Amino acid sequence: MSVIPNNFLWGGAAAANQYEGGYNEGGKGLSVADCFTAGEKNRRREYTDGVIEGKYYPSHIATDFYHNYKEDIKLFAGMGYKCFRTSIAWSRIFPEGDEAERNEEGLQFYDDVFDELLKYGIEPVITITHYEVPYGLVKKYGSFKSRKTIDCFVRYSEVIFKRYKDKVKYWMTFNEINTMAHDPAQQTGIRILEGENRKQVIYQAAHNMLVASAKAVKLGHEINPDFKIGCMICMPMFYPETCKPDDQIAAMQANDEVYFFSDVQCRGYYSAKAKRMFVKEELHIEMAEEDEQILREGSVDYIGFSYYMSGVSTSREVETVQGNMMKMVKNPYLVESEWGWGIDPVGFRFCLNCLYDRYQLPLFCVENGFGAHDELTSDGKVHDPYRIDYYRQHIEEMKKAMDIDGVDIIGFTAWGCIDLISAGSGEMKKRYGMIHVDRDNEGNGNLKRTIKDSYYWYKKVIATNGEDL
Ligand code: BGP
Fold this sequence. Notes:
By secondary structure, the protein is α/β, with parallel strands linked by helices. The chain has one domain (about 10-465): TIM Barrel. It has helices spanning about 15-20, 60, 65-80, 90-95, 105-120, 135-140, 150-165, 185-190, 200-225, 245-265, 270-280, 290-295, 345-360, 385-405, 455-465; strands at about 10-15, 85, 125-130, 170-175, 230-235, 240, 300-305, 310-315, 320, 325-330, 365, 410-415, 435, 450. The chain has an eight-stranded parallel barrel with strand order 1-2-3-4-5-7-11-12, surrounded by five helices. Strands 6-8 form a two-stranded parallel sheet. A two-stranded antiparallel sheet has the order 9-10. Bound molecules: 6-O-phosphono-beta-D-galactopyranose.
């Protein structure tokens, strides 16, 4: 008998700002992601108030799911998906983030998308916001610097919970909420202004987000007690560089930055260490009287997380490299992707164990995948054996975590199941999909979809419930 239960949620994952496009159609307002240009070397260096003539904004058309959702969902169904994770673009529902009226056309778009998914028996798994705060809220309130944005988030959540309560059961509040500690601009459009204390700004906004998340969880459960509402954490577990005790402390501290967020969302309160950090760093986090209770009442039902790579920490003064959202030391034992991300399937098992041991909540791996330069060959195909290898090894380790370690995992969604633009770099050439999309870094291409070899492989994995890898 398979160690994977029959109701396991196999599927794929994407985010509105990375694949949807239609950035100003159907009444949609600008989101933070819509204001990032592809800068030099296509890094998203600039952050502007909208559109500058001659600049390319990758998220504006992305891979145009907006106009192709029927074709794309049919392709997902062809792989046998049980679920599809995506986000709702907040500014499609509230274009400026705080207006009195919701945008009916935006709501209808997601009704259509969810109906199309459900037609094939695919369960939508929804991230309430995935790096997509409406730009209007950034301009007015500085995003989550202000508690006003908490109210806007809760109101938006209420609208979508009520509207889709019979279509969506699985939700997550903020994508990779812990990336706030590393890149608040990408996470929620927060800019640190001159004279501001970076940490003070980050942790105040983080508190506001944690309160917003907890309020949404509580409200969601009131609207539909069957809802399963999770957090979403970016998970590279950090190893110590050596068995030198100081390296162990360095790794512990790197992991504590992750746990800072998941502790609050899973346990409902700040850890002693987190509170001590506020004191030691002289951070003055404004909390309302009712916040403690809100956090307690709004803990999550499951832990959604992304895993691409592990990290390494050291007590030495050394140069770090950029991993997924976080900086780390290179791991000499790992082979790296073309983007320098260490491939570590065993680290995936380790990470599953760490999360489950700490919280004993069901885990949902909502992002795992391999970014590579794929080539559309003259036979009209994309041969991506490296991607198949990556997934095979990670799923094997996931099965060990379930079978040997007893970890409760409810689903696995392959990131960027269809090619989309990279969150970290704004590039199109860093492809993750099992479906190729004809579009390049400058936005050229006819958007034609082509099935990759990994598509057929994953179809077989789902059909055999993870037996035939
Ligand atoms: C995660 C994000 C995704 C995604 C992925 C891959 O951090 O949640 O949005 O993009 O990383 O990262 P990248 O696109 O930078 O390769």
